[in-house]
Amino acid sequence: MLAERRHQLILRALRSGGPAAVTDLSEQLGVSPATIRRDLLKLEEDGLLTRVHGGAVADEGDQPFAEVAEVRVAEKDAIAARAAAMVADGQSVLLDIGTTAYRLARQLHGRRLTVITSNLVVYEELADDEGIELVLLGGMVRREYRSLVGFLTEDNLRQLHADWLFLGTSGVRPGGQVMDTTVVEVPVKRAMIKAADKVALLADAQKFPGTGMAKVCGPEDLDAVVTNAPVDPVTRSSLEEAGVEVVVAGKVKA
Question: Where in the numbering of this chain does the HTH deoR-type domain appear (predicted)?
Answer without folding.
Answer: 3-58
